Amino acid sequence: MLALAVLVSCVGLVASGFMLRQSDFVDAEVIDNWRSKLDEQDAVVEELRSQSIARRQAVGRQIAEMQSRLWRMEALASYMHESSGLPLDEFDFNAPVSQGGPLSQEAEVLPVDNLDTQLGMLAERLKRRDTELSILDQVLLGAYTEQGAKPQGAPIIKGWMSSPFGQRVDPISGKKAWHDGMDFAGARGSEVIAVANGIVVFAGRRDGYGNLIEISHGEDTLTRYGHHEELLVHAGQSVKRGDVIGLMGSSGRSTGPHVHFEVIKSGKAVDPARYVSAR
Q1: Residues 226, 131: one domain?
Q2: What string of pLDDT tens digits covers the 279 residues of the chain?
Q3: Which residues pair with 228 in a beta bridge?
Q4: CATH of the domain at 227
Q5: pTM of the full predicted structure?
Q6: Which residues are within 8 A (CB) of 73 and not within 5 positions of it... i.e. 6 or more apart?
Q7: Are residues 134 and 201 both part of a single domain?
Q8: Number of structural domains, the chain?
């Protein structure tokens, strides 16, 4: 009986100890509460991550815009050097900016808001410099092209006019369509020439046009020459009327060797016929 009593006592102690420890355990309600808080934290983290991505994308777009402005500045600088005879290093935009001074205090990483402000200021400065260079470009262009800036003549030496400006049947789709220029056909590799003095503002690939050249003649006048087999000029280069700028080809949307010729006045394509016949 004593042994049985001792055994019952031991079992009672173990049971009571188990119940005591069990009361210290976290119940389902507490666990659900924790899970709810963790979900809220996850949502906050995801929102911050989305904001960070959006901010980086915005900064990336600003940098891309600045880069395009710098490229235009470099093209203008190249032309100014060629036409003015000034030392190239005075217009070297690739050289690092000369600046310095002793470090007066511990350097700190710019906070995001401050970084945005600095980028905005830099973008505005680049925009002003771009405008200043454009004005200087027009001054130099006016002095250089006084007598030869007006388009005259055809953009070819040998060949024939194969499609006029205006409404026509599209040679590829067979449907009625508007044609913004005149087409001049000839032998593949034949010379394409500038029809007026000016500055090459674009020389490269463009959808539809293939290998394209654009020349600015001042006073909001631009000429385009498309579908080249080979380009012989580069952006920023000055040209005179009659200079060979490319070789005739069939690049882009084309059915055969020809040059698509456009005259743009104040941003709008006009009929090149009167300029071609002016020769």
Answers
A1: no
A2: 444 444 445 445 444 444 444 444 556 776 777 777 777 777 777 877 777 777 777 776 776 677 676 666 666 666 665 665 555 554 454 555 444 555 445 545 445 555 666 667 666 666 666 665 665 566 555 555 556 788 999 999 999 999 999 998 888 888 888 999 999 999 999 999 999 988 888 999 998 999 999 998 877 889 999 999 999 999 878 888 999 999 999 999 999 999 999 999 988 999 999 999 876
A3: 211, 248
A4: 2.70.70.10
A5: 0.53
A6: 93, 129, 130, 133
A7: no
A8: 2
Residues of the domain holding 76: 37-91+113-144
For residues 44 and 139, state if they share a domain.
yes
Q: Is 100 helix (H, G, I), strand (E, B) or coil?
A: coil
Per DSSP, what are the bridge partners of residue 185?
160, 258
Query: What does the block give as tokens for 271?
Result: 């009929």
Find all residues with CB under 8 Å of 86, minimum gap 6, and list them: 80
Other C-beta atoms closer than 10 Å to the C-beta of 242 total 13
β-bridge mates for residue 206, sequence order: 210
Examine residue 53 and state whether it is found in any structural domain, yes or no: yes
Residues 119 and 96: their CA atoms lie apart, in Å, by 18
Report residue 132 as tokens: 């200043």
Asked whether residue 12 is domain-assigned, the answer is no
Backbone angles phi, psi at 193, to 5 degrees: -120, 155
Quote the CA–CA distance of 115 and 164 in Å, as a whole number: 53
209 and 134 share one domain: no
Residue 262 to residue 181: CA distance in whole angstroms: 4
Residue at 26 is within a domain: no
